[in-house]
């Protein structure tokens, strides 16, 4: 009985060691561990038959069973270490990168010159504490004209030939509409800069496009004066163009009073670069602000114009026809 059990234990050890040595995966190894040493494993099953043994036999068989268990456990541990090392090695080999292989050429993308100007301008204003605002490109007559002190019969409507939509709405002719939409929602103090597309029924030529971009500026607060407007515009133009002479020339816009156009001396010529002025009291009243308490200034300029001057582009259409030979220069 005893020697029989002893022989069975030693046979189990041999068989187990061979199976462990033959295991090629960690999953298989775990299966073997459960099979031999697990709660319902073979070693346990043999030991349960010890119950029938005499008191002298029991310690002897117990000792043998322990060495079998230890031996199997050792083999399992060693095989696991070996398999894990092999796995890492295989992974290293599979994931090796041949750094001498020729690469795949991917041409680098660029920022479009118009977006470049917009990014720079917004950066400058954000640096002065302005928030970026936006509004819809399809507008109502109210936001594009009426609220901006431009009633239906106002001659200034001729300054901007408008695309009307069948439903009576229109494509905004300027970003000034964003001023009203923003002021309706917010209370002073206000400092916003609003970039966006605008639309005009212009015949397309080297300097005109039916779709172009503007950036609008609006500041409303207690005690803002024309001096604040001049200083802001000056800092902005210096940051964009460098320290060149600028001048403010009296002009007219329905939504500002007084109004001015700003010229910049560029290559010996005065170039008109933006419109601006003190926000007309009628505009403040349209959004429910008290013009006795609040004043403000506004300005607007064309992004294409800036891009053409800064990059010496002779034809506005180059900015839209996606010719890579042109765009790659920027
Ligand atoms: N909206 C004007 C235009 O498109 C530009 C402009 C002029 C905007 C004066 C302003 C301003 O905010 O104060 O021609």
UniProtKB/TrEMBL annotation:
Tetramer of two alpha and two beta subunits. One of its GO terms (biological process) is phenylalanyl-tRNA aminoacylation. It comes from the Bacteria. Residues 123-329 form the Aminoacyl-transfer RNA synthetases class-II family profile domain. It is found in: Cytoplasm. This is Phenylalanine--tRNA ligase alpha subunit. Mg(2+) binds at residue 257. NCBIfam families: pheS (TIGR00468). Pfam families: Phe_tRNA-synt_N, tRNA-synt_2d. Its EC number is 6.1.1.20. Its cofactor is Mg(2+). Keywords: Aminoacyl-tRNA synthetase, ATP-binding, Cytoplasm, Ligase, Magnesium, Metal-binding, Nucleotide-binding, Protein biosynthesis.
